[in-house]
């Protein structure tokens, strides 16, 4: 079964846009199509951004958080060479929970690693849309 790690921007989008693709990923996960993971680090980042931009969506994030398995990175874990330091906690938490996929909208920092699991310790980094397109195909 696929194990999805959701980055902060995916959590933000799922909470703010309940009819969107990120929310669909969460909904299908709660129905048992895959396991849902994230980290306290990602949840807190999403919460801060929602409080600043869309405070009414914070309650939706709390609901999403209740269905997530939370992971944290292990000390001494293999960092991803070339990934910005600010994004290492996200990648390392995904690695720690043995995620099959890391879903993110952060193309600036994760873009060059997308769809190259041989370069990312076996994790397929994708956008939510890419993952759903592959799931439907």
List the domain count as a whole number: 1
- In terms of per-residue confidence, which ranges show pLDDT below 50 for 5 or more consecutive residues? none
Radius of gyration: 14 Å
Largest beta sheet: strand ordering: 3-2-1-4-5
Strand content: 5-15%
CATH class: Alpha Beta
Number of helices: 7
Number of distinct beta strands: 5
Global morphology:
globular
Tell me the distance between the termini. 17 Å
CATH superfamily: 5'-nuclease
| Secondary-structure class | alpha/beta
Order of helices and strands: EHHEHHEHEHEH
Q: Share of helix among residues?
A: 40-55%
Mean pLDDT: 95
The CATH architecture category equals 3-Layer(aba) Sandwich
How many strands, which pairing sense, and closed or not: the largest β-sheet?
Answer: 5 strands, parallel
CATH topology grouping: Rossmann fold
Structure notes:
With 137 residues, the protein is of the alpha/beta class. 46% of the residues lie in helices and 12% in strands. α1 (8-16) crosses α2. The radius of gyration is 14 Å and the shape is globular. The model has no long low-confidence stretch (mean pLDDT 95).
